[in-house]
Queue: 3 jobs
Job 1
Amino acid sequence: MAGHLKNTEYPHEFPAITKCETYGRENQTVVSDLDGTLLRGRSSFPYFALVAFEVGGILRLLFLLLLSPIAGILYYFLSESAGIRVLIFATFAGLKVCDIESVARAVLPKFYASDLHPETWRVFSACGKRYVLTANPSVMVEPFLKEYLGADSVLGTEICTWRGRATGLVKRPGVLVGSNKADALLKAFENESLPELALGDRKTDYPYMQLCKEAYIVPAATKDLQAVTVDKLPKPVVFHDGRLVHKLTPFTALITILWIPVGFLLACLRILAGCLLPMSLVYYAFWALGVRVYIKGTPPPPAKKSTGQTGVLFICSHRSLLDPIFLSTALGRPIPAVTYSLSRLSEIISPIKTVRLSRDRTTDANMIKKLLEEGDLVICPEGTTCREPFLLRFSALFAELTDELAPVAMSNKMSMFHGTTARGWKGMDPFYFFMNPSPAYEVNFLNKLPYELTCANGKSSHDVANYIQRMIASTLSYECTNFTRKDKYKMLAGNDGTVGTGKPKVV
């Protein structure tokens, strides 16, 4: 078999990974390359571009883009190592290592997970011990590989640092390609048997592949090859951060750089329209400016103070800080909102009244009751946003304060930028949302909660909150979880957290 070769003559071709059997591999060790092997894509540029933009901003992304042709020339005409060195220097030089680690933990896993090769994952996941050999910097790939794919060890390129910042250079023995990968594997297993199984996708992987008992090649992915679906991952990506919606190729990176100044001016115009125009006209102004607002269902009528009727409490799923504004846009009248955390700038430019919760249960309950006496009110009981198709745990306080509960399923679509952040400045959230060429919001009004399902009829507040959570989740085809605001921020920002994270518990 080709994988048994131990001489210096590399085989012309290893068996294709489709021929690899997975039965009985539970006690075996596998070692795999990353780009083009575990991942469908063979280029690491998109992930370097993500780090460049999320840590260094638009100028760092531009610097990387300008040097990428040099990296490509060196890669194809000199060596793979030389090309990767240029990418590492352009991306990392001068950046704080803690910021790079933060992006690797909070941003990159979502994009890596969306590109997982199905055949490689079939084999990789069948083995008891999993190792990854990659030319990419360990600091970039290790959080995803260990936390989401269950890798036992990651052997990657190590970057040089000075006083907590990356220098843009790499430590000896240099970039892990070719014989460096084989040397790293031998060193890692010097006191134990080498892995039984090796996976790779190119000739520079042959040196380590021939060291193992079996070796399989991963052919270049075709356009029809679908990535592994979320339900087959050991741990789904529930939380992720970063401003970019999609990975960047050199071409889309150029388009993004050119669009940002134009998009920012357009965002300012859209925000001014929402702030200065009467709410009854905002819906039409948004459509004229390329912001799509879709309305489903029938909302309840406004409360009538003359009859002593208290206001309706709209219970919304939380996709961005603009949820209450688009709810008001759909209704054609401003609805005050209670907020958990909002930047001062967002409060200033908000076209609706916002009231901060104190996080003291008694104080907040009294405040919400008083606001409901004045009219309708909107609240997002998740307490924070979630981008993925999951709903976080609903705080039950709202169910104790009124029986006039109107669930609203909110969803949005963005093509370039996310309008939420856990690590960055929240004041830019509305600007990033409106910087998308044609952002969209869907406001789906569900039926008011029947009296027999409210606390007034003996239901507990937690039962009511869970029922509404399930109702909204069913409408949006989302999953309910027990995750909270603190879980999200502990994972993404490393602060405001008390409990660890894990696979969401469906309730």
Job 2
Amino acid sequence: MSEPAITPVDASTTSTTTTAAPAAAPVKKEKPEKAEKAKKFTLKTPKGTQDYNPEQMAIREELFDNIKTCFKRHGAVTIETPVFELKETLTGKYGEDSKLIYDLQDQGGEICSLRYDLTVPFARYVAMTRTRAIKRYHIARVYRRDNPVMTKGRFREFYQCDFDIAGEYDLMVPDAECVKLICEILDAVKITSYQIKLNHRRLLDAIFAICGVPEDNFRPICSAVDKLDKSPWSEVRKEMVEVKHLDPTVADKIQTFVALKGKPFELLEKIRSSGLCDSSKDAIAVLADLEVLFKYLRAMGVDDKVLFDLSLARGLDYYTGIIYEAVVQNESEVGSIAAGGRYDNLVGMYGSLQVPSVGFSIGIERIFSILEARAKKEGKAIKQNHTKVYVMQMDQKDLLEERLKICTSLWDAGINTEFMYKIKPNGSKQMETALKLQVPIIVLFGQDELEKNELTLKNTVENKQERIPRDQLVAKVQALMKELNL
């Protein structure tokens, strides 16, 4: 039994006489309270982020592999840059989107920010290393203090898959390859219903000049036009007039241009024949450049995927030439899943070296949202592992060493293999596990096979099996993998 707690005496009421005080009545001992109670909290990831389970990661890894294959097919090398940069490296590169940059606290006298995209760090890398020509890809996380919409693949932490060509090259050649590569990637990951909107930043500037927009207001008005894919003209016009103080008649003139869109050569001819741009030498020159681009896209067989759209603006300040955006049609309303353009002056912002560049970023999270929704709709079980062979014993005896020898021979040959971590495993449990893992090949054996120095090879894809000599295991498995295209 525990000792009774002693009731503390209040000094203000203590008697000065020597008469013994009555014994304190025993009271129930209370558990000592902690200085601070643990705060209740909900286990969750931060807003705009999420965990990915093995099934989701299987889809993502296949997606990354397909994209990397396309990048490498075009001769790209890869680089890696820090997840955070000096704040001054990122400042002044994104226009109004700069408010979405995550700033970090001062650590060691340096003010840093989480990278907003992979393009600006790439430009810093090119300037720092004085690289004059490079074709690179980079797959990494970026961070935006945005209002997330998780169901549409809009996060605060997400992956970007970037491809860029930096260097002096002939007009529109690398630009055309970038558009072609976007098409290759979307086809490879089975996004079939997409369209690539395309415009030219210098053409937009020429249009603004034709309409009477003051030159110092080009970028703010461009940022407003960029919202036309999500907002009606009435709202965009209101922002131009009431927020950015543009003359209403000038705004109305802009509408005439940004309403134009169509097939590349058809719209090009329509603009020329209408005379809308005849007053601007800049606009006429850009239209000639675009004609060259459209010819190259036609030669590459992707001009039918392109929509020449004068409302496409791309809000980022660093774009100087063609701009483009791949948009999904009739699937989950995800919207833009790839975007990019030419940025000839960005590298020069970090020093004297000017390296013209063009590139794009694939919105991996939005593509993943489409593929995940599609997989759920089809109801197909997704293979979460890369296991090609499962080794199991049919007799419930201690044959673990034999299983380890067989697995080792397959591992040493570079074949992905698994087995059950039981000394005396149950045969049906092993088979159940192998089928649940969707393993295409099972190696079975029992005492009878061991005595004859044989093994049984089961093809679960075609539900066939055969006995083979044990010393032919690796060769037989490799042949079956080739047959099953594993």
Job 3
Amino acid sequence: MNDRLMTMQLPLRKGKQGTLISAYAPTMTNSKDVKNTFYEELDALLSSVHRTDNLILLGDFNARVGCDATAWEGVIGKNGVGKCNSNSLLLLKTCAAHDLLITNMVFRLPTRNRTSWMHPRSKHWHLIDYFIIRRRDRQDVKVTKAMCGADCWMDHRLIVSKMKLRIMPKRRPQGYKALKRINVSKLKNSCIAENLAEDLENELADLRIEDDAEKDWEQFCNTVHTAASKGLGPSTHRRQDWFDENDAEIQALLTEKHRLHRAYQNDPSSAAKKTAFINARRAVQNRPRKMRDL
């Protein structure tokens, strides 16, 4: 839609539609006009979504909505955190106008799973990233929480929400049969590659070109695939993942990193715990690169 709003639609079962809206709201330092313009555009976008659609609004709203569930009943739950800021009123009014529920505060979780952003100066954790749905779809959300152990460094914690959605499976065209994979690794043998090239040249020499481009393309693909299947054979198995045999070692590094991260969060003033966590995080990030080099 613009630099701050993006939409995506998912086909659901029984003819229903799912609409996802990703938002990045203005920060506290933006002018009042910029904030009002953003929420006017968001309000118009929400109004354009059909009432029967499943609606999911998610993103960084740079707003702390606090924990006053009685004042905003039906919009936030009883498990909020912190106090409100000036941006919160715009978000709460928009949610109330469209019967939306902020699911982050519905579930009773530890504080570390209810906060998503650390203030760079005060080092306090706040909740400014939200997963918002229609109030009527409350029973479809199983949990919404912040992920404390994401294996990357950023000033926001990732928000995960588990929701019950029945997405329509992608259907293949009727009468279409998927072609089997070819063992292309045999092409490393120069003799096999030369034989295949000769066979293809003979097969394509007898190919009859008609006026229908789709039929000509289908005939060409089938001819090439048939010749390649005879010369190379089907693919037997996929290449083994490079990390399979090192899974135990990597898991041990991740466990130690998570333990040191929790210790540093419980005592953020400790320089030793911070250094230990940074070293463990660097070891986790560098380990896959070293194994790939091997």
